[in-house]
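HTH-type transcriptional regulator, Marinobacterium mangrovicola. Tokens?
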Amino acid sequence: MQLSPTMQKFILHWGEMGSRWGVNRTVAQIHALLYLSNAPLNAEQISETLGVARSNVSTSLKELQSWGLVKVSHVLGDRRDHFDSHKDVWDIFFIIMEERKKRELDPTLTTLRECALDAENDAQTPAETKARIQQTLDFLEQSTGWFDQVKRMERGTIIKLLKLGSKVQGLLSKKKS
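Tokens:
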């Protein structure tokens, strides 16, 4: 696959951003390549296009599959697996957010809930510390609850909500009056 200068720039930047988000650079670059590709690619094509070792491509594809960002597809007459990415940026966004929630926030919520319960009967933990733990728990529960509500909304509604931006504050202020 020939990459235009724009495609190269996008793929390289996506890899850099991936590493800042805690994702292996090659994993992010492969995702970017598959996202931009008009057709599914096999591992050899990915390896050749990005100049990455075939073993690294295999490992990276497994990680992308575990996130639900890449799926295997087959091409008639070719026994090799081909790989494709979701093309809808909203689908990608919600998949990544859901996976990060499962991997990062859900375990944190579990621990915070345990800490809040333990703190109720713990005379050694200062009241201020108990309050901070509870505030953190409340914040994360509200945030994840909001995310759960948003992901069930129709896409058009979400887009309208985003376009409203700070106007939401004005609408909410008018309701109080």
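The first helix runs from residue 5 to 20.
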